[in-house]
Amino acid sequence: YFLSPAEVRLTANTTLRAGAGEPVRTTLEQYILADGAGLTIFLQRDGRWTKTLLDSPELSRVLAMDPAADLKLFMENLQMAELAGEETLDERTAHKIIVRVAGAALSELLPAEGETPNPVGSEAARFLAEGGDLQLTLWLDAENLALLKCQADLTQFMRKLAAGVDAFAARRNLDAATAKALKTALSDIKAEMEYTVAKLNNATPFVLPAEAALAEITPAAPSLTNPAP
Questions:
Q1: CA–CA separation, 90 and 81 (whole Å)
Q2: Is 173 helix (H, G, I), strand (E, B) or coil?
């Protein structure tokens, strides 16, 4: 992850399970480049590259957000913090801390109503806020308090979002079938997140793969927060 200009490289191994069905495992590789006017997203899934252009200055701004501003937002929305002992991560002693953050912190990362003519930001922000508080486990370097690892069980957060689908559907004029499908999907999801931080302020520059640059442009799919007219 680099700032000014914002450049992101992400690799992920995901496992999704809906209800009692078999888990679906997927390997993703993604590059996101921001130029101030919007984002270019390159995505490799199961060996196939796609390229999507998003004309969204507000999302480009969010991607390049100042870490100091992120920390201020986090502290303003911190509900609880509890020291849960010390652990060793990659030969580093780390303080393990359990925190609870108000859902408003997530919503404030997106543009507020009136900041953009695109309704995605304000509606998504409101929907995230309805998910309630979010509990995280953080591991901070005991020597310099740098973040080494973050972990969260998002299952209950998804359940709370599911409970707010009816109000969300009414605001967005979603038909009953779509609202029911969304509510069922959120209710059935078991979601966990974990990431580690390495090479802080010393990341290795990356180069966009040639096959990604040559990928055909895929139209951005309309979302539930910004349905096609």
A1: 24
A2: coil
CA-nearest of 109, 101, 112, 178 to 136 is 101
Task: Enumerate residues 6+ apart whose C-beta is below 8 A from 189.
Answer: 16, 18, 155, 158
Residue 124 has pLDDT above 60, yes or no: no
Region 4-33: what's the mean pLDDT? Answer: 75
Question: Is a pLDDT exceeding 60 seen at residue 208?
Answer: yes
Scored b (16 or more CB within 10 A) or e, 127-149 reads bbbebbbbbbbbbbbeeeeeebb
**How far is C-alpha 26 from the geometric centre of its chain's CA atoms?**
17
Alpha helix positions (H), the chain: 57-63, 67-76, 104-107, 120-129, 155-163, 165-172, 176-188, 210-213
8-state DSSP, 57: H
